[in-house]
């Protein structure tokens, strides 16, 4: 989620410097500037522990690691709420989870030329599991092939 904001910002900055950005992809991220109530401690802990349980992380995962992940979550949440995205001149390839809170085309619309939304049959926390990743990978593969073909055409 937070990574999508970072990717968008980097793409916009690169374009401002005259660089070409062939593809911008977002995995269920949303601009949050000034929105939302703080997430409760229990919700954060539950979400992190659910993710850890299905991730195959070391059984040594304990309170210290949980404390650190909660701190990272809170920091990212605060940064995301203060961040106002710049403008990216191009299409955003966006993968939306079934529990996405908003219409991605609507929330990203002011910050990109167009949004190609691909629904993924998974909740946000499960997007990086094998089934959803297979679906995402197939679409991303086709997008990368298209970008490569476009680049070759432009070089001729």
Based on the model shown, name its key terms.
single chain; 156 residues; alpha/beta; 5 helices
Give a structural overview.
By secondary structure, this protein is of the alpha/beta class. The protein has a three-stranded parallel beta sheet with strand order 1-2-3. The chain has helices at residues 2-16, 41-53, 63-82, 104-108, 130-155; strands spanning 24-27, 88-97, 112-120. The longest helix has 26 residues, at 130-155. Strand 2 (88-97), helix 4 (104-108) and strand 3 form a beta-alpha-beta unit. The mean pLDDT is 85. It contains five helices and three strands, in the order H-E-H-H-E-H-E-H. The chain is globular.
What's this model, at a glance?
51% of the residues lie in helices and 15% in strands. The chain contains 5 helices and 3 strands, in the order αβααβαβα.
Q: What letter string, H or E per element, gives the SSE order?
A: HEHHEHEH
Low-confidence stretches: none
- Alpha-beta classification: alpha/beta
| Shape, per Cα inertia axes | globular
What does the radius of gyration come to? 17 Å
